[in-house]
């Protein structure tokens, strides 16, 4: 008997079956867990792609206009009409109720600081806003399954309910995208906002001034920034081209500027600014004469400027008369003490009478004010007159009275005939609130511009002393401009459509 018991005790046959019986549930459990992990990862990836796309679609509309949130919500509604299936709870599609979309004015600089679905970070800072002009980020979070019917609800195969009492888990990916706007087709020049004042009650942004018609038909004369910058000044921006003169002549800074951040550049070589701008009037001063057949340095298709001869290397206004036999577009009437802008044109026949008589030997026709954002019956601006000459057969080629006999067609450029579009007498230029940013103007400092404007060159820039070296540092007369359009929701959208690049970028 004892031997039988001892033999049974030492008998190891069939032990593998015991071990298999013990380990089989563990092996099956690990297999199910691996399958669940793979399924959960797939669901997470699918949902992440969905919220990424939704964040990008909504952020792309956050351009600072008054209807930006309305358009973002429309993009959200449109995108979520897709039929992509998520979850295991009823083969569920991703719906509006499954996500929370929150619009933010900014995000924490540190990516490790988490954001709640309501836009509050781990430090208690609330980044959310309902102001359509202030928000520039879209936060999209998948809701817990209890708030909908479970787009992110994951039903496990592994019997987790034995341990937790619940076999369903929430998968809640999150995405943050932001609106990025940049401008590439612009000269490396900024102009001080002519409508900024020290009184918040009277100060206007460039967009407000444009929308109210305050910019239309006014001449702006700007000189370089001095120690006390303000309306009537201009300055330079950092650019990627070696030659400032060439950057201005070609109309590109060699880089793109962020809509909300530009960097000022110290020092202004006035000769380079005037020489670069005057290329657009068919004037090739100094060493620029070697580019008089280069398409990048072409003039405008209408360069009428009141030149008394076909001199190609400097601005030589007609001095006979009065009135002179050839005239540039007329200057504005300025109020005493105003160094920002002229009065508006009140009577087109009177204002343009000498200009039309000298250059076209006729009386002033009825010229529409086509670029006026407020009234199409107001007297035409200088830019509207210039465009009317281009659009009307024969007016650009008209010969002015003798002895000047000037035409508007370029005579010095030896390359292909310049086209009317793009218009080479239009420049895109940053507008800066120089009073508010006075400490940042004079030195490689980043600041946020008030906006961007499309400006029209009224006349070439003349030297105070005509014998000065064209590329030198001699005193310059002001740059004469008209504002044609601005960025923003109340503009004519010619600048935004042609020059700005809008992008949405994922941040988290």
Topology:
Blueprint: H1 2-10, H2 15-59, H3 68-79, E1 85-86, E2 92-93, E3 99-104, E4 137-142, E5 153-155, H4 161-164, E6 168-170, E7 174-183, E8 189-192, H5 206-211, E9 220-224, E10 233-237, H6 244-250, E11 257-258, E12 262-265, H7 270-278, H8 348-351, H9 353-360, H10 382-391, E13 426-432, E14 446-447, E15 451-457, E16 479-486, H11 494-499, E17 500-506
Parallel strand pairs: 8-13, 9-10
Antiparallel strand pairs: 1-2, 3-4, 4-7, 5-6, 7-11, 7-17, 8-10, 9-16, 10-12, 12-14, 13-15, 15-16
Which band does the percent of strand residues land in?
15-25%
Low-confidence runs of at least 5 consecutive residues: 87-91, 146-150
What pattern of helices and strands is seen along the backbone? HHHEEEEEHEEEHEEHEEHHHHEEEEHE
Arrangement of strands in the largest sheet:
8-10-9-16-15-13
Number of strands: 17
Specify the biggest β-sheet.
6 strands, mixed, barrel
* Cα separation of the termini: 76 Å
Percent helix range: 10-25%
The class by helix and strand makeup works out as alpha+beta
Describe the global form: elongated
Number of helices: 11
**Count of distinct structural domains:** 2
